[in-house]
Design goal:
The complex is a heterodimer of chains A (403) and B (197). Chain A has 403 residues and is of the alpha+beta class. In chain A, strands 1, 2, 3, 4, 5, 6, 7, 8, 9 and 10 form a 10-stranded mixed sheet that branches. In chain A, strand 6, helix 5 and strand 7 form a beta-alpha-beta unit. In chain A, helix 4 packs parallel to helix 5. Chain B has one domain. Chain B is built from 7 helices and 7 strands, in the order ββββααβββααααα. A 6-stranded antiparallel barrel of chain B has the order 1-2-5-4-3-7. In chain B, helix 5 runs antiparallel to helix 6. The longest helix of chain B is centred in the C-terminal third of the chain and has 18 residues. Classes of the chains: A alpha+beta (403), B alpha+beta (197).
């Protein structure tokens, strides 16, 4: 049965009407949140006290309080675009994977990474670095000690580690040899997403990750995670606390959120092209390891648009040591804006690193073909599952009949 | 006899022509009207004339152009690191088999990934010892045949020593007059443009 578009159409109409009806409610909530941002712009102590109270209020609950905390920069201020540094080396890495597929011909997974080294102001051709793709097929790669197949979450963690590893291999050498500031960019958050893994694995992977951050810190590389079109609500969570009296910050009150239909984008859409928001730190129990090792996660919002009427916000995550380095922060700020302006809204180096790393569906098919040939050489019969075979037949063999 | 540097690799081919992909156009890369050749593993060389150079569409380049905030590093990256798809279309005009040049269609076309080489002066002189390839060019459909031949003849003439250039162009003019005696307007327009200064 195909999707009955005529039945979706009426719901799309209703969705449009609903969005229109919600607009005044949203606008009012945005206004309320902005007023709070203004009122508490420099009330750092009061906000910190509320954050502590919220953390205590939720510490016995299943979920901890997650939100932003101020870092000595006026919250409602816009921080202008600093002048560009004459010469900066920007290094970006990205990764891609083929996930293990129980319905495929064989169990395996593959991780591919790509990296570009772009020396702004050099008039030189950027350098490309494509490490060898890595195919994982041994039993230890695929199964844990209990015999469970590796989860997509763990493959993603391995990919993220590989992405950061490239930066730690390359950035220190460039920092040494060029004498220029080195900006190291990653697509997405700066932290390792380990939430889907068992606790012991979470710790082991995070420790490796933190060691790599240590190396970048020692090399003086300005590392950042770039999140395009963020849906985060860290600052709104802080504003929710600001809207409550200290004593009223209870588990029950925190369950109700008048800003639940907003994101931080709504709050900071006042930023003009090139401007950044104040710096914030992220408060989340899962990120304690970063704070304890000196890499506490901080962030700011950045309007990378060139059109004043059409803000395009990104969230940029940085470690604590970079947040405490105003000069480095300015270089990072200016470099990201400069890079985003090349493509019209997304750092050029990240777009290119993605292009270098991505595994297309054709490439995936080619890998499967190579595996099938090799299996035949070894006297085995490559076979996909009946489920996959039938899906392929019904999905791709179907012809549409048109009038 | 030839410049060893390959300038592209065959993407698709037929007996009458083929298309070569190359990464970037450089001053040393072949130009419209140039005689090029593809050496085959059986020691046959297939000769052809470039009749079209096409820069393929690319969404990333399109986006950069629309934004217009071009940086020299990004331009170099696009041109030299990315596989900017440039296609060179070649009309087959002859082949060399057992050291003998035959101006006509080869028994087999080149295969994908055979490499394209620009012919040097010696190749040009050897190949143009006979001018039977004119007929193939003038009769080729859907290519700017006259322009290809004019550009080719001018370039070939330069490959000859100065004292032989006039003779070569005179010989070419006579051959053209023989082939185009039914279309004097076309003949005239070609002769005017290959006439020695």
């Amino acid at each position: 049965m195909t999707l009955e578009l005529n039945q979706v159409a009426s719901q799309v109409k209703a969705m449009g009407r609903s969005m229109k009806e919600q607009k005044p409610i949203r606008d009012e909530a945005v206004q309320q949140a902005r007023t709070l941002l203004q009122d508490y712009s420099t009330q750092f102590e009061q906000l910190q006290a509320r954050v502590q109270r919220a953390e205590i209020a939720l510490q016995t609950q299943r979920f901890d309080w997650v939100g932003a905390a101020p870092v000595n920069e006026a919250l409602a201020e816009a921080y202008p675009l600093p002048p560009s540094h004459k010469q900066v080396t920007v290094i970006a890495s990205d990764g891609s994977q083929i996930m293990p597929d129980p319905h495929g011909i064989l169990l395996y997974y593959l991780i591919n990474t790509g990296c570009i080294i772009y020396r702004c102001g050099s008039n030189q051709k950027p350098e490309i670095y494509n490490p060898k793709p890595k195919l994982y097929y041994e039993l230890d790669d695929l199964y844990d000690e209990q015999g469970r197949l590796i989860s997509p979450g763990e493959v993603t963690v391995k990919r993220d580690l590989a992405e950061l590893e490239i930066l730690t291999n390359i950035a220190p050498a460039y920092a040494r040899e060029t004498g220029e500031p080195v900006v190291a960019l990653m697509d997405g958050q700066l932290t390792l997403r380990v939430i889907d893994l068992p606790f012991d694995q979470q710790q082991a992977h995070q420790e490796i990750y933190v060691e790599m951050l240590d190396l970048l810190f020692k090399a003086g590389a300005l590392i950042a995670g770039y999140i395009d079109r963020p849906r985060s609500t860290f600052v709104l969570s802080l504003m929710r606390l600001a809207s409550l009296e200290l004593e009223a910050i209870t588990e029950e009150n925190l369950r109700q959120n008048p800003f639940r239909h907003l994101t931080d984008f709504d709050l900071f859409s006042f930023l003009s092209p090139g401007e950044r928001s104040a710096l914030f730190s992220i408060k989340a129990k899962g990120l304690d390891i970063y704070r304890e090792t000196g890499h506490g996660i901080h962030f700011f919002y950045l309007n990378v648009s060139q059109d004043a009427s059409l803000p395009h916000l990104a969230r940029v995550e940085i470690p604590a040591w970079l947040a405490a380095d105003p000069c480095g922060l300015d270089i990072l700020h200016a470099t990201i804006v400069q890079q985003a302006r090349v493509t019209g809204g997304y750092p050029y180096v990240l777009a290119r690193a993605d292009e270098l790393a991505v595994i297309t569906s054709q490439e995936r098919e080619a890998v499967e073909m190579m595996l099938a040939v090799e299996m035949r050489h070894q006297g085995m019969r490559p076979e996909i599952s009946f489920k996959r075979r039938n899906k392929n037949a019904y999905r791709y063999g179907k012809e549409s009949f048109r009038l | 006899m030839t410049t060893a540097l390959p300038i592209g690799w065959v993407l698709r081919a037929s007996t009458v022509g083929f298309v070569v992909g190359c990464r970037v156009l450089q001053p040393s890369a072949p130009q419209f009207g140039d005689l090029v050749k593809v050496p085959l593993p059986d020691e046959t060389d297939i000769f052809g004339l470039i009749y079209n150079v096409q820069v393929q569409d690319d969404p990333a380049v399109r986006q950069l152009i629309l934004v217009g905030d071009m940086e020299p590093e990004a331009i170099l990256d696009q041109r030299e690191n990315r596989l900017v798809p440039i296609e060179i279309s070649v009309l087959v005009v002859g082949y060399q088999w057992q050291k003998q040049i035959i101006q006509g269609l080869p028994p087999q076309p080149p295969l994908s990934l055979d490499m394209l080489i620009l012919c040097d002066d010696a190749d040009l002189q050897t190949f143009t010892a006979s001018l039977d390839y004119f007929r193939l060019v003038l009769n080729a459909p859907q290519i700017p045949a006259d322009e290809v031949l004019i550009t080719n003849l001018r370039r070939v003439a330069i490959a000859y020593p100065p004292e032989q250039r006039y003779q070569f162009l005179l010989k070419a003019g006579r051959e053209l007059a023989r082939l185009l005696n039914f279309d004097l307007v076309r003949l005239d327009s070609i002769l005017r443009r290959i006439k020695p200064a």
